[in-house]
Design goal:
211 residues; mainly alpha; Cytochrome Bc1 Complex, Chain D, domain 2; 11 helices; binds heme C
Length: 211
């Protein structure tokens, strides 16, 4: 009797192991076929799961939170400067995500002007900015030394404003994007030239090497 029992347990165990091996095998085959490259587009299933988990991970009191910072043109200007300096490297000034870094991340930086982002509540946007998104390139900005909550709420106002940015606002932001020392110098001498200084116009950035 006992022996009979062990016999069935053994069979069940063997079947479970076989099933496990099969699942791992299929997963490996999929990885080998699709690769682990960050360049790939996430599958619909991956995207749905990731966004669903993120939705569930936002505490409900945060989900319905209202932006405590009153909207004003000053607040938007401040947030634009902040965005140009901290966020545009990945998200681009216009929020399209069309940057070298953004395109290479997995998942890619989304076009934040689209409904997919705009449909998130203010509270959700705030939580994402403050806490980042795990397993993605989206960093957390909740460090009390740098960003305080008010800064992040101002950025929420800006996210809402992204689809309406004017060309003037975009030009202003471009000046505030992080620059290499060379780019700074170029910009400075251009400004001096335009201001009527007698400095020569800056040389073109591309150099020609003729043998
Ligand atoms: C290093 C690159 C990087 C930087 C810098 C960055 N982000 Fe992100 N961000 C991402 C990526 C990647 C995602 C997409 C994550 C995902 O798909 O879940 C994202 C997603 C978001 C989202 C959610 C949009 C959506 O629809 O899923 C918000 C809001 C956001 N970022 C705001 C900001 C703000 C504000 C800053 C600057 C303070 C910033 N990000 C800086 C990479 C970055």
């Amino acid at each position: 009797m006992a022996q009979q029992h062990w016999h069935t347990t053994g069979k069940v165990l063997a079947a479970m192991i076989a099933a496990g091996v099969l699942v791992i095998g299929i997963a490996l085959a999929l990885i080998l076929r699709r690769g682990l490259s960050a360049r790939a587009e996430p599958t619909l299933l991956e995207t749905a799961i990731a966004r669903g988990v993120r939705h569930l991970a936002t505490p409900s009191f945060m989900h319905d939170a209202r932006n405590p910072v009153p909207l004003s043109s000053g607040v938007l200007a401040e947030a634009r400067a902040h965005w140009a300096d901290h966020c545009a490297t990945c998200h681009a000034n216009d929020g399209s995500g069309n940057t070298e870094i953004g395109r290479g991340l997995y998942p890619k930086t989304p076009d934040m002007r689209q409904p997919r982002t705009q449909e998130l509540t203010d509270g959700e946007l705030f939580s994402i900015i403050k806490n980042g998104v795990r397993l993605t390139g989206m960093p957390a900005w909740g460090d009390p030394a740098g960003h305080d909550d008010a800064d992040n709420w101002k950025l929420v106002h800006l996210v809402r404003h992204l689809p309406k940015l004017t060309p003037e606002e975009l030009a202003e932001m471009e000046k505030l994007n992080p620059k290499t020392p060379d780019e700074w110098q170029q910009m400075q001498s251009e400004a001096a030239f335009l201001a009527g200084g007698n400095e020569a116009p800056p040389p073109a950035t591309h150099s020609h090497h003729h043998p």
